[in-house]
Design brief:
Largest sheet of chain B: 7 strands, parallel
CATH architecture of chain B: 3-Layer(aba) Sandwich
Shape of chain A: globular
Largest sheet of chain A: none
CATH superfamily of chain A: ACP-like
Number of helices of chain B: 9
CATH class of chain A: Mainly Alpha
Oligomer: heterodimer
Distance between the termini of chain A: 17 Å
CATH topology of chain A: Non-ribosomal Peptide Synthetase Peptidyl Carrier Protein, Chain A
Number of strands of chain A: 0
Number of domains of chain B: 1
Order of helices and strands of chain A: HHH
Chain lengths: 76, 246
């Protein structure tokens, strides 16, 4: 899980041109400086990076929750 | 003008769609045509395009079926590696007075013309976002702007396309996706071929230039919108109607 969170954080940090330490996994995507379109684009990148399919919903609004989702849907 | 670009055209086997495909191919784009079914028309279209020295291929799907469009989009992206321009051209008419219009005549026209345009765009959207560029050209109609008796279904679908185009442009402009609509007037195709001379003469009286348009007139604008010459144009609806609706 730590690993997935870290990977997602790294993707987002790179996208925002920030240091991973500046991204807070428990903050909402918006608080981390992403708008809805950014999130969509990032989800596509994360899907490729982690080889998974993500169906985004309103509830998945933090890196931590996204990591939990990815873990739960691994290999589907 | 379109060298190394890949264009997808729905309803590309005849009429305006086929003419756009040819214009794009003449300008060095590789072209994927989406038609409802296999047949002589689409085979001839592919043959003609291939003879221009580009890669052309036909795919078969019903634009009104979202799953079929998702599948066909995946096949095209797999075969061509990318898609730069999407022309949503597939369209049908089922003219009738609203009072006599059957449910099927309403549903079929909205399904193919409007929903088809949305399903098709949605199917290629992920590709455009991934590529960080995209260009959608929707074929609307001047009757979507001015209305037309006997065409409540068709004009509603074409007006819907205009709203869809503008929203699409706003939603994804930031992601370098452009979306524009072309609103043709009366163009000489099989769709207008069925009109009687009397009706055609009456139509010509309403057109400032006094004649029906040719598919090339629409294709020229499509080429401009597909090219980088229009790179600062998005969310626009451009009429090709000889001044019919001024």
């Amino acid at each position: 899980m730590e690993n997935v969170t870290e990977k997602i954080t790294n993707v987002i940090a790179e996208y925002l041109d920030k240091d991973p330490s500046e991204i807070v996994a428990t903050n909402t995507f918006t608080q981390n400086g992403l708008d809805s379109l950014d999130i969509m684009e990032l989800v596509m990148q994360i899907e490729e990076e982690l080889d998974c399919k993500i169906e985004l919903s309103q509830e998945i609004n933090t890196i931590e929750k996204l990591a939990q989702y990815v873990e739960a849907h691994k290999g589907e | 003008m379109l060298k190394e670009k890949v264009a997808v055209i729905t309803g590309g086997s005849r009429g305006i769609g086929r003419c756009i495909a040819k214009k794009f191919a003449q300008n060095h784009a590789n072209v994927a045509l989406i038609a409802t079914k296999d047949g002589e028309e689409i085979r001839n279209a592919v043959k003609e395009l291939s003879s221009l020295g580009i890669t052309a291929k036909a795919y078969f799907a019903n634009v009104a079926d979202m799953d079929e469009m998702e599948n066909v989009a995946a096949s095209i992206i797999k075969d061509f590696g990318r898609v730069d321009v999407l022309v949503n051209n597939a369209g049908i008419t089922k003219d009738n007075l609203l009072m006599s219009m059957k449910r099927d005549e309403i549903d079929a026209v909205i399904d193919v013309n409007l929903k088809g345009c949305m399903y098709s765009t949605k199917a290629f959207l992920r590709n455009f976002l991934k590529q960080k560029s995209g260009n959608v050209i929707n074929i609307s109609s001047v009757v979507g702007m001015m209305g037309n008796k006997g065409q409540t279904n068709y004009s509603a679908s074409k007006a819907g396309i205009i709203g869809f185009t503008k929203s699409l442009a706003k939603e994804y402009g930031k992601k370098n996706l452009r979306a524009n609509a072309i609103a043709p007037g009366y163009i000489e195709t099989s769709m207008t071929e069925v009109l009687s001379d009397e009706v055609k003469d009456a139509i010509k009286k309403e057109i400032v230039l006094g004649r029906l348009g040719k598919p090339e007139d629409v294709a020229d604008l499509a080429l401009f919108l597909a090219s980088d010459m229009s790179s600062y144009i998005t969310g626009e609806v451009i009429k090709v109607d000889g001044g019919m609706y001024v």
